[in-house]
Amino acid sequence: MPALDDSVITKDEVEREDTAAVGAGLDVLEEPDRIREPWWRRLGSSIVPPILALGVVLVIWEIVYLLGVKPEVMLPSPTAVWDELLRLLEGGQAWETIWTSLSRGLIGFAMAIVIAVPIGLAIARFSWLRASFGPLLSGLQSMPSVAWVPLAILWFQISPAMIYMVVLLGAVPSIANGLTAGIDQVPPLYSRVGHVLGLGWWGQTRHVLLPAALPGFLAGLRQGWAFSWRSLMAAELIVTSSKLGFGLGQLMNQGRDLSDAPLLYAGLILIFVVGVGVELILFRPLERAILDARGLSTKKR
Amino acid sequence: MTTLVGESDLVYYEDDPRVVPLLPEEDHSGEAAVIIDGVSKVFTGRRGKVAALDNISLSVAPGEFVCLLGASGCGKSTLLNLISKLDYPTTGTVTTKGNPALMFQEAALFPWLTAGQNIGLALKYAGVPKKQSKARIEELLDLVRLSGHSDRRIHELSGGQRQRVALARALGQNSDVLLMDEPFAALDAITRDVMHDELTRVWKATGNSIVFVTHNVREAVRLGQRVVLLSSRPGRVVGEWKVNIKGPRTIEHPEVGALAAEITLRLREEIASHARP
Q: Which residue in B has a C-alpha nearest to residue A208's C-alpha?
């Protein structure tokens, strides 16, 4: 503290001379550390455990197979399924089949987002809509997608439109609910700030609520993708027709019809890998980027 | 107070060459920045009606720094909500010059934007053209001594830095009145001390009217030109002190301590009167 001698007082100087220096010192001392884990350790901690788990599953499978608990037509050996997978992939058939299903899933998912966002936004922002249609929408989430298939066939016969209807009915409620939940979790303080800054209804929606709800919305999107993929597989497994092309569901049907157990198991594995792959390639990096930018990474030290 | 020197359509503040606020030259004399006239606020709760504010009249002159002081339940925050039009009085009127800016105890910066973008949003809604926005952001960050921090994410800033960005955002609204709701209550003592110096400097530089709400008596005396004491349940104006302390008015200043002691005595009387017999 500077001495309170007369010369200082009469100058009517508000600012102490060292304020800038003290403030700058505090800034340095209080700067949150920005040390990040090296990439190889992050990769190691997130990739190694699942691979180990996969190994355990394969070992158990092999043991059960060797014990002969089930006949080979029901439970083939892991190596037989692996060979079948290689055959499908090398012949190029698998890629075409995967793409038929995946493209449908992604297109359906994209349509679901376009439809679900206005619905979720409207329900979150208008209390009377929430009171009336809110419970209906959450209720729809618990509908098994397979249940929609007969209705979809009745409406659209056997056509891609029928598949998309099933996918949409599966995914739209999750995505809309995710957005509504995300908006509900926005701290009220943010809206007060928006109000003080002079933001109107649209300004609040565009600059405060939507960006603030993004993490919750992303959770809804992930669930929406899971529902899209499940609904798509349900539709493909139930309806087999040349009009629908040859997707993963049809591949599995073929395995069942030919009593080809390795083919059936290979189909299951492909469905699993595609579902998880989209999650890993699309959603993980997106979530990481959003949470990192906000300093919300859940990573524990 | 600082001398204002008019030049073309801008006002420059003689003693701070670093600052060029974008204030149009206007004659504020005689015209109060905030007029609170006979304001009462009644909330209807589960246990019936509760009067939060009772017949409060108060006016803040242009460029004046007023501290509102009171214990819990004095309706300080309610009063600020009324001034900032987040809420409406039950009776009476609140008149302000333009839309007041408001700062909270939390910095309340948007974490999906950078420090600069947070200020930019305020500028956008204050009608600052996009072309001038970038320069103005730098100017405001410079004013709160955060030059070059425009691209920082909020979580990369310390508590004091966040409050300074929040201050810059509030100033970016270019309003004549700045309302502050215990903005430094969550900071540690040393950071708060620095923030007091910085706020005084920024206030002198910009010439805003400031209404500063706090429950910290020394803080009120340290900052305000006038300290207004509110009673609790309901909030009424029970005392008013002009602060005439010359020189660097630090929190340790003996005159600050003396006046704070006097006000504290009055505040304790007021709080004691609420004890159940």
A: B110
B98 vs A contacts (CB less than 8 Å): none
Mean pLDDT across A189-207: 90
| Sequence letter at residue A113 | I
The span from the CA of B186 to the CA of B190, in Å, is 12
Helix (H) / strand (E) containing A171: helix A160-184
pLDDT confidence tier of residue B30, bands split at 50, 70 and 90: low
Domains of chain B by residue range: 4-100+176-272, 107-174
CA B267, B271, B272: angle at the middle one, nearest 5? 115
- The CATH class that applies to domain A80-293 reads mainly alpha
Which CATH topology does B4-100+176-272 take?
A: Rossmann fold (3.40.50)
* Minimum Cα–Cα distance from A195: chain B residue: B86
Q: What's the predicted TM-score (pTM) here? A: 0.78
Nearest-angstrom CA–CA distance, B8 and B173: 22
Size of interface A-B (CB pairs under 8 A): 119
For residue A246, give the nearest of A112, A101, A139 by alpha carbon: A101
Cα–Cα dist A246/A267, whole Å: 12
Measured between CB atoms, which of A1, A12, A212 is closest to B246? A12
Chain A: give the shortest CA distance to residue B3, in Å: 13
* ipTM of predicted complex: 0.78
- In angstroms, the CA B146 to CA B165 distance is 8
3-state SS, one letter per residue, for chain B: CCCEEEECCEEEECCCCCCCCCCECCCCCCCCCEEEEEEEEEEEECCEEEEEEEEEEEEECCCCEEEEECCCCCCHHHHHHHHCCCCCCCEEEEEECCCCEEECCCCCCCCCCEHHHHHHHHHHHCCCCHHHHHHHHHHHHHHCCCCCCCCCEHHHCCHHHHHHHHHHHHHHCCCCEEEEECCCCCCCHHHHHHHHHHHHHHHHHHCCEEEEEECCHHHHHHHCCEEEEECCCCECEEEEEECCCCCCCCCCCHHHHHHHHHHHHHHHHHHHCCCCC
H or E segment to which residue A78 belongs: helix A78-90
Residue A11: pLDDT band with limits 50, 70, 90: very low
Rounded Cα gap, residues B275 and B277, in angstroms = 6
Per-residue pLDDT tens digits for B188-230:
888 888 888 888 888 888 888 999 999 888 899 888 889 998 8
